[in-house]
Amino acid sequence: MTESKMPRVLAAALIGLLFGAYKHFIQMKWLAAGRDAYLADQSHYFDRITQTHSTGLTLIAGLILAAVAAGLYEGIAFGFSKVIRPVEVEE
């Protein structure tokens, strides 16, 4: 029994599309708010990271985000694999 690669491709494409839509939404929000609002927010963000930056905390947060992203990807790929059956080729 061979496993189809199509569910994994579709899962990666779906996650890419969702991320692209999210980034587009954020960009449109800042374009609507204007340059001054964006620069004020970035200044506030810079002040916040200079006060609370911790290497250990950043690494742990990155590890948690990577685990969540991998779990989301595997869950979506599993769902697609249940819907899309592999094509069996007779030899």
Supply database-style keywords:
single chain, elongated, 3 helices
Strand tally is 0
Largest sheet: none
Order of helices and strands: HHH
Question: Which term fits the overall shape?
Answer: elongated
Discrete helix count: 3
Low-confidence sequence ranges: none
Mean pLDDT: 90
Question: Can you tell me about this structure?
Answer:
This protein has helices spanning 6-33, 35-52, 55-83. The protein has three helices and no strands. The chain is 82% helix and 0% strand. The relative contact order is 0.19. Helix 1 packs across helix 3 (55-83). The chain has one domain. The protein is elongated, with a radius of gyration of 20 Å.
Q: Brief description of this entry?
A:
With 91 residues, the chain is an all-alpha fold. 82% of the residues lie in helices and 0% in strands.
